[in-house]
Fold this protein.
Amino acid sequence: MMSRLRADDGCPWDREQTYATLGPMLLEEAYEVLEAAEAEDWNELRDELGDLLFQIVFYGQIGAEHNHFDVHQSIARVHEKMTRRHPHVFGEQKVISTAEVLSNWEAIKAAERRPEENEDNEKQSLLDGTSTRLPALLEAFLLTTKAARVGFDWKQGEEVFNKLSEELRELGEEVNREERDQGAIAEEIGDLLFVIANIARWYGVEPESALKSTNRKFRRRFSHIEKRLDEKGKEWTDTSLAEMDEHWDEAKRIEREEMKRERETREISETREKS
């Protein structure tokens, strides 16, 4: 189908696409997959995975047309790589924990990189495989995940919170200076967000998805404020912050009641299935 769409007598829009123009669509489809999974909407997840797969096939078709590669080669390469990086499954190596699996993974990746030294005969960094085009919060999460796998990490979660307190204090010092330095403030905010990404990693939360979820929650609650003001025929200029907060809290109560009902319905359903 992809070949047909890209043919001379196919779709003009599909023929115009390039690696660059597909980029934003690939990211959008990936995030829609995440959103469907987080919502536990399995029908939506099924469809979004299909949309994401379509983007991958699209990339493969362009690659084949330019004699760069084809999608079959991509599949074969990742199959070889995953086999090589799982010697405890496809080989004789023994492991006793996930931590050991991840440590071995990084060691195997490092061995793979050695033949691929650059023109200056410098080895690639452990972090080179993390794209600089990722959303910044996700990039921070992945960078520190890789560093942690080789032992560059805090020993206890409490130490991460101590670092958070330190960064908050330093940010406070910068914003309270008589002559503010916006560059210094930006740097301290970046440091603070970096620590937040580390806290998320320590407690098994992917921060980009967590923030996306909070963004959606903010949209819902803010829309509730707008709905209530519209019902009253009021404009923002006629509304106090206290009234906005009242509607915000109402939205929170409604959400909690809905969550409670959903939980009770799920528990009843599970009880019936067991009986």
In short: The domain at 2-84 is CATH 1.10.287.1080 (Helix Hairpins). Residues 23 and 55 are 9 Å apart (CA to CA).
